[in-house]
Amino acid sequence: MNFFGIISFTAPYLPWVLLLFSLLLGNSAMVDFCGIAAGHLYYFLDSVYPNQPYGFRVLKTPAFLKRLLDPAPIPRVDVQDRPGGFEWGNNEN
Fold this sequence. Notes:
Number of helices: 3
Radius of gyration: 26 Å
Strand order of the largest sheet: 1-2
Shape: elongated
């Protein structure tokens, strides 16, 4: 990644670069540190901890959000009910 054409860095360092830029502008670093900590905590609970021995999935999507946001299931179509009038698969001549 390239930050204002000044420095080049890889994507994992973006939060740290933004933190340094925020400090250069004279802003508080607490909000940036909270964001970095929240990102690390989420990554650990979602990707690392469930793969440990005796680990389990701590963060689960609530059922009401799954019902609200998941796409509707596609209804199955019976092959015999398709239009076209061709008898595909029959051995009759």
